[in-house]
Amino acid sequence: MSTEIIGIAAGVCTAISLLPQLIKIIREKEARDISLFYLLILFAGLALWIWYGVLRDDIPIIGTNIVSIILNIAIIIFGIRYKRKSS
Amino acid sequence: MSTEIIGIAAGVCTAISLLPQLIKIIREKEARDISLFYLLILFAGLALWIWYGVLRDDIPIIGTNIVSIILNIAIIIFGIRYKRKSS
């Protein structure tokens, strides 16, 4: 149980660390500094973590990486939208 | 074994996604866009993942998050150095 809490706290912190990129891109409506290549690598990594969590039956990994991947997808969507506008 | 490979692949991808921030800060010698607050939250998250990996005896989580936390520490060190210079 306390192990799970540490896992959830870990995942909440790493998910939160995606927020400044999302906030910046929505505020500035500009995506020149955003690398879609690395966002897609991060997407692959988060999807693999979810898959790994399912294989290990590890709820903190699954849950927190689902939150992270949703934030990552939002950054990708805004990134594509604002890259188009600025080009 | 194949589960471990998925975990390692996941961790390699999420570690790689820290690289653009590190490369950018070293190239531009400028850290105005870097939020130390969020880098410290990410540091806490990665440290908790390592702790979680130790508790779960999970080698992919431990190994890949050690790589990530080294990259994160490098970003923090350069961030503090270049924030000082630019202020």
From TrEMBL, chains A, B:
Record keyword Membrane present: yes
Query: Which sequence ranges are marked TM in the entry?
Result: 6-23, 35-55, 61-80
Q: Which Pfam families match?
A: PQ-loop
Q: Which domain of life is it from?
A: Bacteria
Q: Does the keyword Transmembrane helix apply?
A: yes
One GO cellular component term of this record is: membrane
Q: Chief subcellular site?
A: membrane
What membrane topology does the UniProt entry give?
Multi-pass membrane protein
Which terms does the record give in the GO molecular function aspect? sugar transmembrane transporter activity
Where is the protein found, in the record's own terms? Membrane
Name listed for the protein in its UniProt record: MtN3 and saliva related transmembrane protein
